[in-house]
Amino acid sequence: MSETILIKNASQVVTVKGYSEKPATREEMANLSIIENGAVLLYGGKIAAVGTEEEVAAAAGGRLDGADIIDASGKIVLPGLVDPHTHLVHAGSREDEFGMRLKGATYMEIMESGGGIHATTSRTRAASAEELFFEGMKRLDSFLLHGVTTVEAKSGYGLDWETEYKQLVVSKKLNEAHAADVVSTFMGAHAVPAEFKSDPDRFIDLIIEEMLPKVAEEGLAEFNDVFCERGVFTPEQSRRLLEAGKRFGLTPKIHADEIEPYEGAELAAEVGAISADHLLKASQTGIERMAEKSVIGVLLPGTAFFLMAESANGRKMIDSGVAVALSTDCNPGSSPTVSMPLIMNLACLKMGMSPEEVITAATINAAHAIGRAGKVGSIETGKQADILIANVPNYKKLQYNYGMNHTDTVIKKGKIVVR
Length: 419
Ligand code: NIG
Ligand code: FE
Description:
Pfam families: Amidohydro_1 (PF01979). The chain is α/β, with parallel strands linked by helices. It has helices spanning 26-30, 53-60, 95-102, 107-112, 117-126, 129-145, 161-177, 200-217, 235-247, 264-271, 284-292, 301-306, 314-319, 340-351, 355-362, 364-369, 395-400; strands spanning 4-14, 34-43, 46-52, 68-71, 76-79, 81-83, 148-154, 181-189, 223-228, 251-256, 275-278, 296-299, 324-326, 387-390, 407-412, 415-418.
């Protein structure tokens, strides 16, 4: 494989340029920057030029000799998709609970009776690091096949240091071993473990005093996340944990207002979280505060779909000035999928987002939500050569065909990884 790749004849190159400094909001989210009959030159793992074929040829100079040529006639070129919220590293699956939910049991009832996150915690505690790594590699392969080149990964199925550590080390190894980039988040506060059921505050103390320092010391994660939800962690406990994480250099994220309104969006604004995720039940005040404080709304319409709940109001958030990103929430309980293309369909159909907004949300805004917008999420000179070629003649068709995977070719750091 050559160091140089020229993608040419693309019916559209969707660059999503111009938002690397600051996430796109409102009209910006609908402004994709499209080059008709475009070309992209990749060199040394980076984007070397983008424009019309003549422009790119002029910029290429002698570098085109021996280049790999990809003819993208009838296809579109996009930035590799970014998934900013997953529970990538876990053991087992929960189709038994799916059956129970189909008969009327709720997600929280199942969790309160010892299933749900607790069930996956038992399986993950029992699994070896090798097993978790092997499963993670397969899942990442599947992400790549759906055009996703960067994936955030949370711990949170240990709820004890030994297993949280195992998950974070596996995430780190996955990042090294797999073509996809993996960005780690510590989520020790994903559920109250049975051992601490009668005193959840003590579990928060344990995370703050014993786990956060080790996560920071070993550089195991960049973000600190919490499931702020009635019956899990209160806003007070969440605030304490996220503020403590900040002192260790970990940027806050929150699972906010997923099942019930609980002022999670407000808390995200208060602590200066990089993102608040879920937001199905976020209040108008919470949405306004997020917009004021530039907290990104990471929306997970697949989770709402799979939990048979009403989706977050993406339309209202965008209209209120919130920068919205999209994610699969890939996890064994509330969203067992890796399909960003399906999430993008659902964002249009269930949240009133336009195809343009959806692409911005799944690329540059998603990159912002994990602190990677300087590197990925748009097709701009100097950025990492992470590219998705989709087998559709225009970007609108990507949203119009639902439940389909139009991924044709995926390039990661200048290497063809799916073809
Ligand atoms: O984002 N809400 C909490 N955490 C995950 C679900 C995890 C699980 O059920 O295993 C979520 O929905
Ligand atoms: Fe989640």
